[in-house]
Write a structure and sequence with these properties.
Radius of gyration: 17 Å
Helix content: 25-40%
Strand order of the largest sheet: 6-7-8-3-9-10
Number of helices: 7
Strand content: 25-35%
Distance between the termini: 21 Å
Order of helices and strands: EEEHEEHEHHHEHEHEE
Largest sheet: 6 strands, mixed
Amino acid sequence: MIRMENICKIYDRGRVRAVDGATLSIAPGTYTAILGASGSGKSTLMHLIGLLDRPTSGEYWLCGQPTAGLSPRRRAALSRAHIGFVFQSFSLVPGMDALENAALPLAFRGMPRSQRRDLAADMLCTVGLGARLHHTPEMLSGGQQQRVAIARALCTSPDLLLADEPTGNLDPKSAREILDLFDRLHRDGRTIVWITHDRQAAQRAEQRILMEQGHLFREEERTI
């Protein structure tokens, strides 16, 4: 699924090593939390995993395909083909209802309107929003908006669900509900990588990888 070897991301003419020699392997079907404080480099690593940025050096294979040397267009296509993103800020389009927001990636793929709406409706039911299909973001709670964002990510049937602080803007009750949803998605066979600073949330994952000053350290694995 994911294999990184000695990945570095260096800024400011070598003075800032945001990711410093990271080696990482994530197998299909696993649930991994990458845990670190603000400034540890975890968001930079998330952008590298998601092909939203290029490493300064090192090798990265996604689903068996090497990513070095790919053009921006090929990198974007590879990311779209394999990764579903869930962000802290939800990134929903105001004025579009839950169904339209969830179906948006399918529109970019050229899927017929009726087909993409049916698929989006199925994913919204999967995340518990079958009764909120026609609610716009301002009509939804923070937890419900994040569920729409998760449904949108699932619509493309990604090999990897990559979540960046997805409970960071939520109240404790909504955060627990989103954590429970990710647990269920993992039990259904999804591969999940969760970027977080919240150690309690990270305990839900099968394996935890600590990030400090650009370096990765693996905690012992456990089964949930």
